[in-house]
Write a structure and sequence with these properties.
With 167 residues, the protein is of the alpha/beta class. The protein has one domain (14-166): Molybdenum Cofactor Biosythetic Enzyme, Chain A (3-Layer(aba) Sandwich), CATH 3.40.980.10. Helix content is 44%, strand content 20%. The protein has six helices and six strands; from the N terminus they run H-E-H-E-H-E-H-E-H-E-E-H. Strands 2-1-3-6-5-4 form a six-stranded mixed β-sheet, sandwiched between helices. Helix 2 crosses helix 6 and helix 5 packs antiparallel against helix 6 (143-166). The protein is globular, with a radius of gyration of 15 Å. It starts with a helix and ends with a helix.
């Protein structure tokens, strides 16, 4: 079966959880979290959970463990905490949980970011991986980075990825 045929059989609606990692965001000013929700809903995906968590490894790890045990959730999309500042701990909290890493996501996002913002793209550690048959995407906190990742990588492939995880 070709990848086009396989992708055509993928689910059209995915149940998602969104997490914003930030010490300063609130539901009112979480532009990146709201953008993820808007883009997912525009593409007929469902939001099962949305939360804002402080930049704290234990809190992030606890939330990810909770969400990966939820049978209703297929995908988790995080934003924030992927940079190189001392407070940026999203990758340190989540990456060790990966059963499989999607290295292609990181590479493609870096290339797309470089094309968009130039050499500053090296500051992002965006990644994706699988935990308990759930895809987890870890995105930077800027709305521009979120839109880039969602439009170019996540929305075109999220159903296809979930299909593979449930085959």
């Amino acid at each position: 079966m070709s990848h086009e045929e396989h992708k055509a059989k993928a689910p059209k609606s995915i149940n998602c959880a969104i997490i914003t990692m930030s010490d300063s965001r609130t539901p009112e000013n979480d532009d990146s979290g709201k953008l993820i929700i808007k883009l997912l809903e525009k593409n007929d995906h469902k939001i099962i959970d949305y939360s804002i968590i402080k930049d704290n490894k234990k809190l992030i790890n606890k939330k990810i463990n909770q969400l990966t045990k939820n049978k209703k959730i297929n995908a988790i999309i995080t934003n924030g905490g992927t940079g190189i500042a001392k407070k940026d701990v999203t990758i340190e909290a989540i990456k060790p949980l990966f059963e499989k890493e999607l290295a292609g996501f990181s590479s493609l996002f870096a290339k797309l970011s470089y094309d968009s913002i130039g050499s500053a793209a090296v500051l992002s550690r965006a990644t994706a991986g699988i935990v308990n048959k759930k895809i987890i995407f870890c995105l930077p906190g800027s709305p521009e980075a979120v839109e880039l990742a969602m439009d170019k990588l996540i929305l075109p492939e999220i159903g296809h990825i979930v299909k593979h995880l449930n085959d």
